[in-house]
Design goal:
CATH topology of the largest domain: Immunoglobulin-like
Largest sheet: 4 strands, antiparallel
CATH architecture of the largest domain: Sandwich
CATH class of the largest domain: Mainly Beta
Strand content: 25-35%
Structural class: alpha+beta
Number of strands: 7
Order of helices and strands: HHEEEEEEHEH
Distance between the termini: 107 Å
Helix content: 25-40%
Strand order of the largest sheet: 3-2-5-6
Number of domains: 2
Number of helices: 4
Length: 159
C-alpha cells in the first residue's frame, strides 16, 4: 500500500514540472519582449530647409517654426505647405510632396521598423527669395472684405 501511495504521488507530481518549465519560459519570453520592443529603431523623417538669403521665417503647415536654416520633423509622406518671409524680399509659398522611399513601402516597412537602429530620412529643400521691387509698399490687411467693397454702391459704408 505504501508503494502504491508513493507511486500515486509521483504521478501527480510529474505533470507539475513541465507546467513550471513552460510558465518559466513564458515569463522569460514576456520579459525579453518587454526589453527588446522599446529597443527597436524607428524611422526619423525630417526636412532641412535653407534659403538664400538666410534668416527667412518659415511657417510649416500654418505654424511658425523659426528662421532658416531649420530642420523640421514630419510624420506622413504627403503634401506639406511652407511659407518663407523675410523683410525686403518677396513672400514665398510652396507646396512640397514628400514621396515614400521604396524601403518604407509594404511589406518592407515592417522589417525597417523593427530594426534596432534608427533610420534617418532627411529631405533637403533650398529656396531662393527674390528682392522686392523698389517703391513697392507692404500693405497690412485691414479686415475689409474686398468682394463686398467692390460690390457695395458708392456712398455706403462697407461692413
Amino acid at each position: 500500500m505504501l508503494t502504491l501511495l508513493m507511486m500515486k504521488r509521483k504521478l501527480t507530481a510529474m505533470p507539475q514540472i513541465p507546467r513550471i518549465r513552460s510558465l518559466t519560459k513564458l515569463i522569460g519570453l514576456v520579459v525579453a519582449m518587454a526589453i527588446l520592443i522599446p529597443a527597436t529603431g524607428c524611422i526619423r523623417s525630417r526636412v532641412h530647409i535653407t534659403s538664400d538669403p538666410e534668416g527667412a521665417e518659415v511657417t510649416f503647415r500654418g505654424e511658425p517654426r523659426g528662421a532658416t536654416p531649420i530642420t523640421i520633423p514630419f510624420i506622413w509622406y504627403w503634401y506639406y505647405d511652407f511659407t518663407l518671409d523675410k523683410p525686403g524680399y518677396e513672400h514665398k509659398e510652396v507646396l512640397e510632396r514628400f514621396r515614400t522611399p521604396p524601403w518604407f513601402l509594404m511589406p518592407l516597412d515592417f522589417f525597417m521598423e523593427i530594426l534596432p537602429i534608427p533610420i534617418p530620412d532627411t529631405r533637403e529643400r533650398h529656396y531662393v527669395l527674390q528682392k522686392k521691387a523698389p517703391g513697392v509698399l507692404e500693405v497690412e490687411p485691414t479686415g475689409i472684405d474686398l468682394q463686398k467693397a467692390l460690390t457695395t454702391p458708392a456712398g455706403q459704408p462697407v461692413r
